[in-house]
């Protein structure tokens, strides 16, 4: 996370918003394949893709769980048969697309990392009065005490995705989870 923060520090806000974010492409192994048996973490990457600054790029088939090793095996035909698609993953992509479309902060807002230790990263996207709080936990269930920040002065957070809880500045995050709140 430190490397990513240092890299972003050298970019203007507009450059950050134009970053081309992708999990995989026609030149790489599919992200699902890279995860191996740890596919429970795939939804975390999807939430990151749609909430981090930049333009999310979806390589065909990612939204339905297509796998594949390095080129040419990452270029399998799209699985048009519904029974061969991961419907839960597809639904997550649909929800995240709708959330990003609805939120100016996700599309054009600034980004401040609030917490990044061990297996947890928490950041907030901000545009004017809009706030989007994102918590990604790739480890065991845990609690995170948010730092005091004027960016978090929100009358009420509404959970839009995931199962984490936010109470009095403390995040309770389930194991291997991603949660998104908006004001």
From TrEMBL:
Write down the superkingdom of origin. Answer: Bacteria
Is Kinase tagged as a keyword? no
Q: Which GO terms describe its molecular function?
A: cyclomaltodextrinase activity
Key word Hydrolase present in the record?
A: yes
Q: Which UniProt keywords apply?
A: Glycosidase, Hydrolase
Which processes are annotated in GO (biological process)? carbohydrate metabolic process
Q: Where is the Glycosyl hydrolase family 13 catalytic domain?
A: 3-109
Among Pfam families, the record links this protein to:
Alpha-amylase
Protein name (database record) = Maltodextrin glucosidase
């Amino acid at each position: 996370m430190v490397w990513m923060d240092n890299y972003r520090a050298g970019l203007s806000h507009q450059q950050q918003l134009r970053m081309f974010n992708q999990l995989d492409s026609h030149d790489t192994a599919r992200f699902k394949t890279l995860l191996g048996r740890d596919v429970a973490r795939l939804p975390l990457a999807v939430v990151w893709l749609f909430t981090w600054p930049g333009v999310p790029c979806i390589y065909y088939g990612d939204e339905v769980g297509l796998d594949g090793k390095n080129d040419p095996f990452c270029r399998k035909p799209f699985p048009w048969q519904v029974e061969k698609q991961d419907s839960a993953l597809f639904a997550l992509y649909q929800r995240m697309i709708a959330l990003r479309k609805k939120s100016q902060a996700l599309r054009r807002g600034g980004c401040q990392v609030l917490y990044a230790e061990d297996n947890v990263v928490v950041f907030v996207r901000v545009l004017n009065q809009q706030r989007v709080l994102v918590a990604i936990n790739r480890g065991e269930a845990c609690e995170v005490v948010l730092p005091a920040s004027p960016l978090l002065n929100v009358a009420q957070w509404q959970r839009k995705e995931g199962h984490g809880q936010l109470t009095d500045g403390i995040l309770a995050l389930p194991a291997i989870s991603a949660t998104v709140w908006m004001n």
